[in-house]
């Protein structure tokens, strides 16, 4: 039986004798999505800059 790791998706089957069977779903491991949204052509912001942008957004400023 294949090993299930944290973050894996599971397939759940309801069996006729009122039991359930859990199996890992085939596919790519969850760690393959890390870095998916990374954009190398954008400026990196500091925590302070992110806080200022967040406050401006809540205040309705652009």
Descriptive report:
The protein is of the alpha+beta class. The chain has a domain at 1-27. Helix content is 19%, strand content 16%. It has a two-stranded antiparallel sheet.
Q: Nutshell version of this structure?
A:
The chain has 62 residues and is an alpha+beta fold. Helices cover 19% and strands 16% of the residues.
Distance between the termini: 54 Å
Choose one word for the global shape.
elongated
| Number of continuous helical runs | 1
Q: Give the C-alpha Rg.
A: 22 Å
Total number of β-strand segments?
Answer: 2
Structural class: alpha+beta
Map the helices and strands.
Elements: E1 10-14, E2 20-24, H1 47-58
Q: What are the salient characteristics of this protein?
A:
62 residues; alpha+beta; two-stranded antiparallel ribbon; 2 strands
């Amino acid at each position: 039986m294949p090993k299930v790791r944290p973050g894996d998706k599971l397939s759940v089957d309801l069996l006729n004798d009122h039991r359930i069977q859990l199996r890992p779903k085939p596919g790519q491991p969850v760690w393959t999505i890390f870095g998916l949204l990374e954009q190398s052509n954008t400026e990196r912001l500091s925590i302070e800059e992110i806080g200022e942008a967040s406050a401006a957004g809540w205040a309705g400023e652009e």
